[in-house]
Amino acid sequence: MAVDLFQSAALMLRYGFAAAGALIAGRALYMTIRDGGRASSIRAQARETGVIANLIVKFHGGEIKKYTLNVEGMVGAGRVCDVRIARAGLDRRHFFYEIVNGNMKITAIGHSRIRIDDTQELRETIVRPGREFIAGDAVIRFVVLRQKKAPISPMTKRAYGNTISLVLKDVKPKRVIRRRVRRRGDD
Amino acid sequence: MAMIEASKYRKSLNRTNELPLLHLVMLFQFVSMLLLTFRDGVMDAFSFQMSLYLPIGTFLGLKIISKLFPVDRCIFILTAFLSSLGVVLLRAVLKTTADASDQALFLLIGYFLMILSAFLIRLVRAWEKLSVIAMPLALGFLCLPFVFGSPSATADSWVKIGGVQFQPSELIKPVLILVLSAGFSRKEGFRVWWRYVLFAGLACSVLFLQPDLGAVFLYFIITVCLFYAGTGNYKVTIAVLLIAVLGVAVFLKLLNSIDAFSYLASRIAIWQNPFSGAYEDARQIVQGLISIASGGLFGSGLGLGSADRVAVVASDYIFAALSEEFGILFTICVLIVYLVLLIRGTTIAMNARSRFHALTALGCVFALTSQMLLIVCGNLHLIPLTGVTMPFVSGGGSSMLSSMIQAGILLGISSVNAEDEYDDLMRITRGQWREEE
Amino acid sequence: MKDMRFAIRLIAMIMAALVLFVAATYVITIHINGDRWINRANNTRLRDAKKTTVQGSVYDSAGVLLAGSSKPGERHYISDERTRRALSHTIGEQTNMSATGVENFHATTLLGFTTTRTGYTLQRLQGQDPVGNNITLTVNAELTRYIADSFKDWKNGAAVVINYKTGAILAMVSIPNFDPANMDLAVQDTAYYNRVLQKRYAPGSTFKIITLASALTNDETIKEEQFSCSGVWNYGEYSLRCAGSKAHGEMSLVQAFADSCNVTFGSIAYQLGAEKLRGTAENFGFNFDFSFDDVIVNQSNCLNKGEKSTDLIQAGIGQGTTEVTPLHMAMIAGAIANGGDMMEPKLIKKVTNPSGFVISEMEPEVFLHCLDEDTSRDIAKYMYETVRGGTATRAAIKGYEDGYVCGKTGSAEWTNDKTRETNAWYVGFLYGDSAHPYAIAVVVEEGGSGGAEAAPIASKVLKKAIELDVY
Description:
By secondary structure, chain B is an all-alpha fold. Chain B has helices at residues 6-13, 19-37, 45-68, 73-93, 98-121, 124-142, 144-148, 168-185, 190-209, 213-231, 234-254, 262-272, 282-294, 318-351, 355-379, 397-430; strands at 159-161, 164-166, 434-436. In chain B, strand 1 (159-161) and strand 2 form a beta hairpin.
């Protein structure tokens, strides 16, 4: 008798499970599409994300231009670079940089080279903030930007490294993004 | 820098509310295990406990991990769903509790590993140096089956030490992904990454000799994927793929003449024509196909199917069991869940701020999805069965732990992304910059 | 980082496409092959279901009850033993010995296993034994019994009559047979094998229909050619002989066909070449893995095993490695009669649920367009000449005026390394009679001459079919 009851329950629940599956998959898809929409609206609103430093480039003709930097990226003349510096004699993909401990670690790609003070040609070097170096025909200075609020991301924290104490007043980081709305559905 | 409305930006950072999804998954876990409690006429203690532990565990797990790091909660819930589906299926299909309780145990350990991995992946610094040491260690670990070997039905790369059985190829997979990501993310060109390619090649060779061909295939395509994503060098990638295809074709032609691989030749012959009735081993495939077809649209009913007649159902044919017990509709939904994991994982990879994280996320997502494709195609008789397991769902401790680690890595990277976004938000809304010389 | 975005997106799209592809393949594979897999003998689920379900009944096209159940696990058949035996391969039995019988191949229908199983669920919930669906077949029991009676008791063989306009199988007999109501009785070797669907015979001269079709489509002038036969043709170290080494002399293509001249058709095959002959054969369904909904039919083979030129000549006269099932031969004959369109064989006329509601009905489907209308008409004429004055005169039906009796005989040699035997073949149809569109194939194993053994059986059977007015 109990087994029969189980069989009947199992047969009825087949439809329940199918519905549950559909709801779960559907909800997951909905959430993903919605979040994707939000992400693109963010990117549309604020193109420059993760900026923590500037590159000030003095071109050969005297022109000066400022470029923003993320934690790491590629610099060169090509379209595929994160920082695109055109008409300055840089290679298509000139060098790759990482900002660690407040300094900029540069690694040249392929056959490209970095020069410091016109003396040595380097493949890898570490540039302190405020210092200049030469790539192609341009003189490039690296400048770190400070923030009013301490970063919580480990990437950014590593980028500032032990210089972070110089940053600002508010040192206690927020760990979690608070959810705005709990009750009524989403958003 | 563009001035935008702070509130609008803040609003965009919010994620869609994940609570309905959580509740649905908890409900599913509860009802399915509760149903199984009464299957044999006597109340089954294990199932009843699971009907409570699984939903509570998922709930607590979510609470804990989201308190620790701002992870992608949808991925966590879906991972919990798939893992508990594995426990449910094992309990429903196998008549003894043993395998299901092992699975539940590994699930628990897996949760811890997940949180651990998420934590560890946030420490970006150490990985790139660690990879140098990790490579020889990993290779050594992969060689263990030669020493302690204990072959199982389809893959001969198991190790049994003491009473514990595990599969090194599964456990090393996350290590492979991390090492390769570290290697290919440095933009220095050939002189750097040749050693990583060598490492991958050696790993594949070791696995090939064991032989565990499913793992070889997985390791190979993961390497190719990470190589292409890391270096963008499509010419080399295509060349390698072509050589691989040619190599396989040549290998298959020569198969019959090499004694050591004669079992492979027969395996392929079985695969080509399993219905001929000539081979005993083909029973597995045939029963699997019968299983899949017997489910119909809504399944035969949880606990009412007879998928246990398929050999090795626990790991290799779990998909057939899923299709039989739950039916076509539900199985399609499970496939959609994997698709959602793919999409979210890709988003995480795209939003990552460092190349290492991006590659790692891509590698994990790619590995999980490829595994799923391999096993589903194997069950559907599209390709020969490779011994690979279905991530999260398949029984098997090593597979479960490895998948949980990969999921943990994804969650960890997603939390870093989220914190970066928060930093951006603060930066933008608080406004000003001070340049420092 | 920007450079990686493209690669990541590309890889992700490829993977997503693969996932969707797999999902689609999953659904489609089950849709196409699901029934076939479920109905396999080693599906234990069906065996279990038979213990708790009342299987549906099987009727013939006239409504006669052939098999039924009153409670789970019980099965009763038609009371007359000879009829039971004649229908044994068509209906099947309960112990999964005969894979092609309706009770085996369509077990899921008889057990009520539909894709949603809602009916099943409801019945279980109400505490009743679930009842399966009923099947009405296209065969006619009386005709089937008559065919079985027409075979001499000591000869094995097969015969099948189809409706070439709809594809319906009107009668199907395979001998030796068994008694589904008494499965404990000892049976002859191969009794459970359905020779109509599963056994591949060398077609012998009946294959000349295909050779002729190939010649007519590939060579426009061959109709006017004259052929000369001296009874023997030597090629290399082999020689091809006509029956009894009889020299047919000078003749036209029609005469060569009607008199079944091996030399002529062997040389025609040689001139056509393997590609063209195989091509025509494949247009008629050779080398094709049939997966029909209603019946399992084994694949017929022609020149697909890397044969040499000597095999080509043998193939032209239906010997060598050529093999075909009787049903396929009947379908070929039907295609000729039907203006070149081969219809898909159907066995199930309709399926009804226990309350009498019709779940599905037979819908004729064209399986292959083998030939254009004109060529098929020509071949039909040739086959008419064969009955009128050629080797198949004994297939003529006395007193039949509504249409033309067309046919082709064959005496196919085969050897099992110990003896050399000849199977008697007749393949033919009634042409131009829209009320009786029958095509028939008869094989008598070790029967000798097709014209002497198989043709008379076909004549009797078709006459009976006309009498019974089956459609």
